[in-house]
Amino acid sequence: METFKNETWRCPDCKRKLNKSNVKDWKCPNCDDTIWIMADVNGNRYVLERIKAKEIQKDDVILLDGMHSGEEVKKVKRFGKKIRIYFRKNPALTETSETFFNTIIGNWEPKD
Predict the structure, then answer these.
(1) How many domains are contained in the chain?
(2) Is the pTM of this model over 0.70?
(3) Distance of alpha carbon 67 from alpha carbon 60, whole angstroms
(4) How far apart are CA 25 and CA 22, in angstroms?
(5) Looking at residue 42, what DSSP letter applies?
(6) What range defines the domain where residue 99 resides?
(7) DSSP state, residue 69
């Protein structure tokens, strides 16, 4: 899972701005909601959630390492502690169920 230099982290539920020291497993320390990550990826301003492979579902859009746009999940197969993720365009990946992925949930505009 790729991280980006310019990330801003917020909890969508309690609206808290967060930082590395108070985030564990990409959950809000106050309410345990999955945090939103605002990141500029080569001019694309994405709102991301970092979720474990075991949470990925069909039609999620994953930002694969080294890519600048998302890849849609075609299907997910679970076997033991491994997850195989099939994409519409890219080759399938097999990862542990605990591996984190960047999922694109939207876009953001900077405040003036």
Answers:
(1) 1
(2) yes
(3) 16
(4) 10
(5) T
(6) 8-107
(7) S
Q: E strands within 2-110?
A: 8-10, 17-18, 36-41, 44-52, 61-62, 71-79, 82-87, 93-96, 100-107
Per the CB < 8 A criterion, the answer to whether 60 and 103 are in contact is yes
**Contact of 23 with 9, CB cutoff 8 Å:** yes
Is the residue at 1 inside a domain? no
Tokens (6 digits) for 80: 């033991």
Closest CA to 56 of 78, 34, 76: 76
pLDDT in tens, 11-38: 999 988 888 888 888 999 889 889 999 9
Q: Tell me the C-alpha distance between 41 and 25, whole Å.
A: 22
Contact 99, 53 (CB under 8 A): yes
Q: 75-81 contacts: CB < 8 A, separation 24 or more?
A: 78/54
Q: For the chain, state the CA radius of gyration.
A: 14
Q: Is residue 2 part of a domain?
A: no
In a domain, 13, yes or no: yes
pLDDT of residue 112: 53
112 domain-assigned: no
